[in-house]
Design brief:
Length: 236
Amino acid sequence: MDSAAPFKPVRTRQTVQDQIYDQLRTALVNGAFEAGESFTISAMADRFMTSHMPVREALRRLAAENALRISSTGTAVVPDLDRAELAQITQARMIIEPATARIAFDHIGADERAELGKILEKHQTCGETGDVVLMLECNRHFHFGIYRAAGNDVLISQIENLWLRSGAYVRFLSDRMGELLQTSYKKGFAMYHEVMLKALDDGDRDAFVRTMGEDIEATHNLVTDFLTENEGQGGS
């Protein structure tokens, strides 16, 4: 388990399970765990400084969301990388996220637009500094800044679940992104976000929505290329 995962001791007994669930869920979305990584209830209870029961229940909730697998011994395992699963996740994202962006388009006011601009500037800076963690964080904040403007909690919940199931792929991508940012890729990795903001400023809803889909598809293709390269080198 990644020792850098930012877990905090849990002290409020009334909501122990929810606190553990929330922290684990955030860590998974952020790519804190590698595909195939496992951890026991006992180890997690020690990390959270709590008893086994709330940890067990939090892990079961995450397993129900397909974010983890629970073995017969009760060990939690991050699902392996799988091309078919990735394709299915991407297909679902291509349906839900552009549709949510279409709804959000008319609800993005001046304040939201300004915040998206700030996130984009920070995102662009990552290409120069090579800060992969911040780059992925900015990417997430940019997307969800748009989705939340739609004002539909049901859609947000569905999108969050898709990103949750993508956590291991985010980790896989982040482990390779450092080298990629040493190439010409660093000049254009934020291109789709730039185009989306221009479309927003131009009042071009169709371009805004179309580019959201192109951004998702480009990420899928990048991960797929890395998976192919990894397999060619004998990786799992």
